[in-house]
Amino acid sequence: MATVASGVRHDGAEGETARRPGRIRMNFDAFDTRVRHAERLAAAGDDAAAAVETAIAATLAAHRHCGVFASPRLERLMAEVGRRLEPPTDDRPAADPAPFRRVLHVCTQLAPVGGLTKMLALWINADHHRINGVALTQHRGPVDARITEAVRGSGGAIHHLNHRQGGKLAWARELRRVARDYDVVVLHIHCEDVIPLIAFADPAKHPPVLILNHADHLFWIGTRISHGVINLREAARRLAITRRGVEPARSFLLPTLITLPERQRSRSAAKQALGVPDDCVLLVSVARGAKYRNVGPVTYADRHVDLLAAHPNARLIVVGPGERADWAPAQAATDGRIIAYPEQSDPRIFFEAADIYVDSYPFVSSTSMLEAAAYGLPLVTRFEAPEAAEIVAINHPGLDATAHVAHDQSAYEAHLTALIADAPARRAAGAETAAAIARLYAPAAWLAGLDAVYAQARALPRLASDAADPVPAEAPHLGEPDLRHQDMFGSDFPVSGMTKNYIGMLPLRQRIASWAALRSAGHFSGPWERVRLLLPEWLVRNVKDRSGLLRTGSI
C-alpha cells in the first residue's frame, strides 16, 4: 500500500469500522427524538411548528446518517398536516392524467454552482414542446439567469413561494393552488423540504407528482406523495425500491441531462491560458469543494503525490476546494504540480485543457464525469467499497462501461500511469466515452427518454389516499452502504445551524422561544444575526431578494 508525503497510510479510515454501528445508533436516536417531538406538536394541533420540526429531523438524517434512507413516520405526519389545511377555493378532484403539456418544476433552492441548477435549465430548454414553470419553496437570493431565461423561453413563470406572508403552511397552500394549473409536477427538492409533502397530501386533488431522485445517496422525504420516482441510474432505482419503499412500477430511469459541448479552444490553447506547458499531461478534477473531504488524515492531494513523483511531466488541477492548508505538504512534495482552484460556475476551460479526467473522492461527481466524457476525456474513478454499497460509486449510463474504476490506491495509480504513459490509449479511451455520451445524452435521445417516463407515469393508477394508515417506526440498518455513509457524506452541521435555517418560518411565539434558546446557548454570531433571526423569513426574503434584483437590474 502506497504512503503519502506525510507518512500516513491510505487506509487510515478503515480502523474506525468497529465504532460505526454505534455512531449510526446514536444518530438514529437523535433523529427519533426529533420525529417524536414533531408528532407531539402535531397531536397538540401546532401544525406549523410540527412542519418545521419535521424539516429539522429530515435535515439531521440527511447530514448524520441514521441507517435509514426514508421515514414513513415523517411522511405520514406531513400528510396529516396537509389534509388539515383549509381546502383551496376550487376543491374539485384533479382531472384524470392526460398528455402532459404544462409542467411545474418545484425546487427548494437553486445554487449557482452544482448539477441540479444546470440540469433544470437544460431540461426546460430541451423540452421545447411543453410549457415549463418553476415554483421555489425556500430560495434565497436572485435566481440563476440560466433558469430565468429557460422559463421565459418556455412560456412559463417563476413562483417565489417564500415571498408570500406566512411560513411553511402558507407556502404549501400556495403551492397547492399554483399546481392546479399544471398537468404534472416534478420535484427537484432538497432532502428535507416538507412543503410539497404538505401541499400534495391528497393525491386525488392535484396533478401527478414525480420526484427527481438527484440525491440518491442520501436520506430524503417524498416517497408517499410520489406518483413516480425518476432515478438517474440503476443503483438509485434499486435503492429506491429496497430502502425507500418505492413500488417497482413507479421507479423510472432517466439519465442526467448534460450539454454536449463545443470546444471554444484547442487543448493546447486552453493549457496556455492556464499557464500549463503544452507537453504536460494534465489531470483535471472538477466538483463542489465538499466532495474532496479527507478520509481520516489523508487528503485528496495526498493520494496523488507518489503518482506525480513518478511522472514529472504530469500535473493535477482540482477545481472546487480552493486553497487548503492541509494540501500544502502534498503540493510542496510535488513542486507545486497540484493546483487547487475555488468552485467555478463555468469550468469549461479546465475540461478543454485536460488530458485525463479524475473523479472527486470520497464523494463522486457524476455530473462532472459526464461533462468530461462529453469532451472526449478518459475517466478514472475510485470505488473501494463492497458491491452492496454500489450507491457510492459511479455507475451511471454511459459511464458504467467506459470509466476506469479503481478498487484501491494501487489500482488507481496503475490506471493513471497507463494513461499518462500512452497518448494513443488516452485518445482511444476518450473517444469511447464521447461516443457513449453522444448516444445516450444527446438532447433528442434524452427527450425521448423523458417522453417515455411521462407516458409510464400517465399509465399508472393514482396513488391511494391512505394518510390515516399507521406505519411502524423505522429501525437503523447496520450493513452496507450505511456503515461507511457518514465517513463519506456526513457533516457536522450543528443542530443550532438547522434551527437558524428554519426559525423564520415559525409562528411568532415559537420563533421567540427558539431565538431565546439560541441566545442563551451563545449561538449568535453577531448583532445582525440576532436581529435577523427575529424577523419572519418572508419579510427577510422580500427585502433581500428584491433589493438584489434591483442591484442587478433584473427588475
Report on this structure.
- The chain is an alpha/beta fold.
- The protein folds into three domains: 102-258 and 450-459, Glycogen Phosphorylase B (Rossmann fold, 3-Layer(aba) Sandwich); 267-441, Rossmann fold (3-Layer(aba) Sandwich), CATH 3.40.50; 497-555, no CATH class.
- Helix content is 43%, strand content 11%.
- The protein contains 21 helices and 13 strands.
- The protein has helices at 20-43, 47-63, 72-84, 115-126, 145-154, 168-179, 195-199, 234-243, 267-274, 305-310, 328-333, 348-353, 366-374, 409-421, 423-441, 443-459, 482-489, 495-502, 508-520, 527-532, 537-552; strands spanning 102-107, 131-136, 158-160, 184-188, 209-212, 228-231, 251-253, 281-286, 314-320, 338-342, 356-358, 379-382, 404-406.
- The strands form two sheets. The chain has a seven-stranded parallel β-sheet with strand order 3-2-1-4-5-6-7, with helices on both faces. The protein has a six-stranded parallel β-sheet with strand order 10-9-8-11-12-13, with helices on both faces.
- Strand 2 (131-136), helix 5 and strand 3 (158-160) form a beta-alpha-beta unit.
- Residues 1-15 and 549-555 have low confidence and may be disordered.
Keywords, please?
Rossmann fold, disordered N terminus, seven-stranded parallel beta sheet, six-stranded parallel beta sheet, globular, disordered C terminus, alpha/beta, 555 residues, 13 strands
SSE layout:
Layout: H1 20-43, H2 47-63, H3 72-84, E1 102-107, H4 115-126, E2 131-136, H5 145-154, E3 158-160, H6 168-179, E4 184-188, H7 195-199, E5 209-212, E6 228-231, H8 234-243, E7 251-253, H9 267-274, E8 281-286, H10 305-310, E9 314-320, H11 328-333, E10 338-342, H12 348-353, E11 356-358, H13 366-374, E12 379-382, E13 404-406, H14 409-421, H15 423-441, H16 443-459, H17 482-489, H18 495-502, H19 508-520, H20 527-532, H21 537-552
Parallel strand pairs: 1-2, 1-4, 2-3, 4-5, 5-6, 6-7, 8-9, 8-11, 9-10, 11-12, 12-13
Helix pairs in contact: 1-2, 1-3, 2-3, 2-18, 4-5
